[in-house]
Amino acid sequence: LRFRTKSDFRIAIGLRSGLLIDAHRKYYGHDISGIDNQIKIKDKDISNTDKYLFEATARIGWRWIAISGSYGLNSVFAKDKGPDIRPASIGLSFSLY
Fold first, then answer.
1. What is the DSSP string of the chain?
2. 53, 4 in Cβ contact below 8 A?
3. Torsions phi, psi of 55, nearest 5?
4. Which member of 22, 46, 54, 92 lies 3.0 to 4.6 Å from 73 by CB, making a disulfide possible if both were Cys?
5. CA distances (Å), 57 to each of 22, 40, 79, 88, 94, in order?
6. pLDDT digits (tens, 9 = 90+) for 71-88
7. What was the pLDDT predicted at 80?
8. Residue 23: its pLDDT value, please?
9. Mean pLDDT calculated for residue range 46-71
10. CA 71-77-79 angle, 5° bins
11. What are phi and psi of 82, to 5 degrees?
């Protein structure tokens, strides 16, 4: 939903959804066994993440500058499979139109 006044004051709220296609972790660095070796570890077995993302978004601004933010409505991990972490972001955005 968007609202704009004649003086170019703007407010927008909305919802965003997404689908997790791939989850993995990588480590490149020194071996922790004490031997000075460089190792590479790639792991795709992250089975406790939630496959769907739902978040609320908002943006408020005037003319070409705005403050935008989002908050996750569901947890990153599946229920009872990890900590209840919800992603959130806030930022400054510039529009050319």
1. -EEE-TT-EEEEEEEEEEE-----EEEEEE-TTSS--EEEEEE---TTB-SEEEEEEEEEEETTEEEEEEEESS-SBPTTSS-----EEEEEEE---
2. no
3. -145, 150
4. 54
5. 24, 37, 23, 10, 16
6. 999 998 888 888 889 999
7. 84
8. 86
9. 93
10. 105
11. 175, -175
Nearest to residue 65, comparing CAs of 90, 92, 97, 47? Answer: 92
pLDDT of residue 96: 83
pTM over 0.90: no
Backbone φ and ψ of 79, nearest 5°: -60, 130
b/e burial code for range 53-91 (CB count within 10 A of at least 16 → b): eebeeebebeeeebeeebebebbbeeeeeeeeeeeeeee
